[in-house]
Amino acid sequence: MQILSGVFEGKSLGTPIAFIIMNNDKHSEDYELFRDIYRPGHADYTYQMKYGFRDYRGGGRASARETVCRVVAGAFAKLVLKSLGIEIKAEVEDEENLTKRIKEAIDEIDTCGGVVSCVIKGCPVGLGEPIYGKLHAALGEAMLSINAVKGFEYGEGFAAADMRGSEHNFARSGGILGGISDGTDINFRVAFKPIPSLGREMKGRHDVCAAPRAVPIVEAMAALVILDYYLINSRDV
Length: 237
Fold this sequence. Notes:
Layout: E1 2-5, E2 7-8, E3 11-12, E4 18-20, H1 44-51, H2 68-83, E5 87-92, H3 95-107, E6 114-121, H4 135-144, E7 149-154, H5 165-168, E8 176-177, E9 180-181, E10 186-192, H6 211-236
Antiparallel strand pairs: 1-4, 2-3, 5-6, 6-10, 7-10, 8-9
């Protein structure tokens, strides 16, 4: 990555930060097969119907490659949050089991999904709005905007539906109450679907599981949301 503007001697200048990342590992010819067919599970069909054309060479905007810019922006956001005492840490859930599933998928020329969990520590009380602009809604929107994400839950999530109030009322809010941060750790989970391109039936370039590579993307998107809401809250005060 090369930073083109906005940073000097390791510090931001307050001007727009521009950067460029060169992809030196592209092989567009690998996707020639998809020029005239739609890949099951991809956005090929919807893009074609909506825009009248599509970039079949890896998925274009539907490709996870587009998240690289989010990671860079999130890295800057994390620097600011760190100075405020806010830390964000994501990780693959049940890594040992996921590693086993990935190996099995490779052996069977298949793919698999996974879950990334995230914790935000040091978030102050008061970020978020009561109705529109709920903090958990903003985090959910950010996570669901990541390619291959199929689910988002915070706190106890769907498990809360099987609990009684006496179980759920204590320390199970996920760090957010009424759409507003309560000062405790914010925790959420993000579910990634199996990668739709299967090596057994198609040519092209395929990963087996998106979850391990998605960890920094989840952290980046969380950082952008928290910093945005922190700045909004600061202006309100």
